[in-house]
């Protein structure tokens, strides 16, 4: 259930203190300074998705700072704020992020990364909207030195891997879907995996060109297919879901690969089967067992596609193994 806190019904004189408490509860204890005079308005909404906390803030101009004093006062709660990393998506207005000696201007549509375990500040010079995805450091699994190379930086949300992450987070954080705990856990794990990949991309040389990002994603898809060949449910749909992209985009990625995703899955499965069937008779398992092991649930279908690929039935291939040249 979402927790919503708004200044709408709070007396004007009490709003700064109320807002400071609201932001502290949503993100972490920090100092809040309202930028301009006049009535201040703000709204913060916090929801949970597995082990993630997703917070949407819409408010007037302000500066928020988490100082060494705030860190010194942190307590060992079950999940203390000092043990989290935040990925922010700026959906309206601009922000200036300071952390680890770096200053970054974050524009609408950009991403930012900051660590609640070290001092940082965010300056919003005008009314803004900001979505923060807070995740436990243990879940991210990124080395401290690598994380420090990414915090305090702005990441464009219009190209490269930043665009992939921003496009995934935007609808998810706009309306966190009600779902069963198991589903929420898988979604949260997907978000964390994407963020860890983003960190890896950044430390390997900033944002690479979009074409290289596509090539990198193709390599990841091919590796995913090889690791899940035994799963009968492996399909373009499951592959796309595992990489948080649409099936249409997946097919577009493979337009220059000379093979469709479905065909690639079938080819790789057949190669694994052919390899096993070439083993010596003493150790080779039954043909049906080989087919099932590599994702072919229907023996008749397996025999048809194997003959089409190798010119022999699986049994003929096994019997002629001593005369065959291994498939290249």
UniProtKB/TrEMBL annotation:
Q: Which SUPFAM superfamilies match?
A: Homeodomain-like
- Tell me where in this chain the HTH araC/xylS-type domain is found: 219-320
Give the top-rank taxon of the lineage listed in the UniProt record for this protein.
Bacteria
**Gene3D superfamilies reported for this sequence:** Homeodomain-like (1.10.10.60)
What does the UniProt keyword field contain?
Answer: DNA-binding, Transcription, Transcription regulation
This one is known as AraC family transcriptional regulator
From which organism does this entry originate? Streptomyces asoensis
């Amino acid at each position: 259930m979402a927790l919503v806190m708004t200044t709408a019904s709070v007396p004007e004189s009490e709003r700064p203190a109320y807002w400071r408490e609201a932001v502290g509860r949503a993100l972490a204890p920090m100092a809040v300074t309202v930028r301009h005079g006049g009535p201040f308005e703000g709204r913060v909404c916090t929801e949970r998705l597995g082990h993630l906390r997703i917070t949407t803030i819409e408010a007037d101009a302000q500066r928020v700072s988490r100082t060494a004093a705030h860190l010194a006062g942190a307590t060992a709660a079950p999940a203390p704020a000092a043990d989290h990393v935040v990925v922010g998506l700026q959906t309206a207005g601009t922000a200036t992020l300071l952390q680890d000696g770096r200053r970054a201007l974050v524009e609408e549509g950009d991403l930012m990364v900051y660590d609640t375990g070290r001092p940082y500040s965010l300056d919003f010079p005008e009314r803004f909207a900001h979505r923060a995805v807070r995740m436990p450091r243990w879940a991210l699994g990124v080395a401290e030195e690598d994380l420090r190379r990414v915090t305090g930086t702005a990441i464009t949300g219009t190209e490269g891997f930043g665009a992939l992450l921003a496009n995934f987070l935007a609808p998810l954080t706009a309306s966190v879907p009600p779902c069963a705990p198991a589903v929420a856990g898988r979604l949260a794990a997907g978000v964390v995996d994407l963020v860890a990949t983003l960190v890896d991309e950044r430390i390997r040389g900033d944002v690479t060109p979009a074409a290289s990002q596509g090539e990198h994603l193709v390599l990841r898809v091919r590796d995913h297919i090889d690791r899940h060949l035994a799963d009968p449910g492996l399909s373009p749909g499951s592959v796309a879901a595992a990489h948080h992209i649409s099936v249409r985009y997946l097919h577009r990625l493979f337009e220059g690969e000379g093979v469709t995703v479905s065909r690639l899955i079938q080819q790789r499965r057949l190669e694994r089967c052919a390899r096993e069937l070439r083993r010596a008779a003493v150790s080779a398992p039954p043909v049906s067992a080989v087919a099932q092991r590599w994702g072919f649930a229907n023996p008749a279908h397996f025999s048809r596609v194997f003959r089409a690929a190798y010119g022999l039935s699986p049994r003929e291939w096994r019997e002629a193994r001593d005369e065959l040249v291994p498939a290249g």
